[in-house]
Amino acid sequence: MAGVFINYRTGDGAEAAVLLDEELKDVFGPENVFRDRRAIPAGAHFPPDLWRALESCGVLLVLIGPNWLTLRDDGRRRIDVPGDYVHDEIRCALEWRKTVVPVLIDTAALPTKGQLPDTLAGLAERQVMHLRVPYAHLDLPVITEALRHHVPVSSTARQPSPADGEGLPGSGGLRAGGDAVHKRSAVSYGSGPATYNENRDAKSGGQR
User: Fold this and answer.
1) Where do runs of H (alpha helix) occur along the chain?
2) I want to staple 10 with a disulfide (CB 3.0 to 4.6 A). Which of 27, 37, 207, 208 is the partner?
3) Spatial separation of the C-alpha atoms in residues 195 and 178, rounded to whole Å
């Protein structure tokens, strides 16, 4: 699977993960998109399947909600707990030099290096995209279009209509787009929270 691996935190991004998964598998085919609860069958010994999918993916999407950094178990941040899947997936993807894209959900901001564990500090230097759940119909096509430069499209997947590509750059991957992209998505790119202008055109088998 040279496709997309969706990394998300239960309790802070699971709903967005489902929305994103449904959109991406419709465009790229389910074989090119990995979200654990859909891709791993019931009863499967999931760790081998999970790590195989991560190793073979081309892009890791890190879904970061407003409480992503602060969720705690027994007083300790989940992101700091040994064996935390969210942490380990991001760490491995950074070490393996995968394309790692933070996707900021709603009003979330990208954590700074000082807020992250040392092993995840590189995440703070990655260009972000935004996904506002109430306006997913605007933001999902922008994410999908950017991923077309990195992910193979299944022959049976939905092909874009002319409207899907309207106002989007022909290339540029996952870097910040031009003004046309901002108009199409009503979302700003960068490390801060999203800026919106409406008038301008959940993990199984372990703590997550």
Assistant:
1) 14-28, 36-39, 46-56, 85-95, 136-147, 179-185
2) 208
3) 15
Distances in whole angstroms, Cα of residue 62 to Cα of each of 13, 78, 165:
10, 15, 24
Neighbours of 110 (CB within 10 A): 22
CA dihedral defined by 112, 118, 119, 124, rounded to 10 degrees?
Answer: 10
Strands (E), 46-198: 59-64, 72-73, 76-77, 99-105, 129-131
Local structure of 102: helix, strand or coil: strand
Angle at the Cα of 112 from the Cα atoms of 50 and 202, rounded to 5 degrees: 35
pLDDT of the residue at 172: 39
**CA distance linking residue 83 with residue 103, whole number of Å:** 22
Q: What angle do CA 108, 116, 64 make, to 5 degrees?
A: 25
Does the pLDDT of residue 190 top 60, yes or no?
no
Tokens of 75: 């007083």
Distance CA 75, CA 114 (A): 19
139-187 residue pLDDT tens: 999 999 999 988 877 666 565 554 454 433 333 345 433 333 333 333 3
